[in-house]
Structure formats: C-alpha cells, structure tokens
Recover the amino acids of this structure.
C-alpha cells in the first residue's frame, strides 16, 4: 500500500512539475523589458571603440545619459577597456540629428578613472 501511495505521489508531482515550467516560461517571456532608446548608439559606441582600440577588450559599459539639443543630441557612454596589463576608460560621445537619427560626430576621450 505504501509503495502505491508513493508511486501516485511521484506521478502527481511529475505531471504537475512537467506542466508548470511551460506555463512559467510563457509568463516570463511576456515580461521582458523594452529596449532602451540609446541601445543602438551603445552598440555603435562599442563597435567604434573596438575599431579604435583593436587589441583591447571592452570589459565594462555605462550609459551616462543624453544631452538633448534643438537640432542635435549627444548620447554619452563610458567604456572600460583592458589592453594587456593596462586598464583604462574611454568616454564616447555620439552626436546625432534629432529628426533623422543620423550620426554627425563621434568623439573619444581616454581616462585613467
């Protein structure tokens, strides 16, 4: 009798757990965060930094913020790089046209902090 009870409990747990993860996964996917508006510029900042410093690895990334102007705005980022034994930061500013989104200027400034 005990074996039958244990077997039934095992089966009920198996079927309830088996159905639960699928429901859980669907719920989790519906709650994804939206892509922030600066994301495309963050990708561009990393690509251009990699072009400028091809031997360095980007080990950290920070979106500082946006400076909004009437005609153009600037997205500001700080990337932390490691090149051999040296670590350093690079401030990357991406200026773009507010109407078209077209990039007009990218600047880099190294920092030790």
């Amino acid at each position: 009798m005990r074996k039958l009870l244990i077997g039934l409990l095992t089966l009920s747990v198996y079927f309830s757990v088996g159905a639960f993860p699928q429901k859980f996964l669907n719920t989790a996917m519906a709650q994804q965060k939206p892509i922030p508006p600066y994301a495309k510029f963050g990708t561009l900042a990393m690509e251009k930094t990699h072009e400028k410093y091809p031997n360095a690895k980007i080990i950290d990334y920070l979106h500082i913020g946006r400076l909004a102007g009437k005609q153009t705005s600037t997205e500001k980022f700080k990337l932390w790089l490691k090149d051999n034994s040296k670590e350093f930061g690079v401030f990357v500013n991406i200026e773009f046209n507010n109407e078209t989104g077209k990039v007009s200027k990218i600047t880099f400034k190294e920092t030790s902090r």
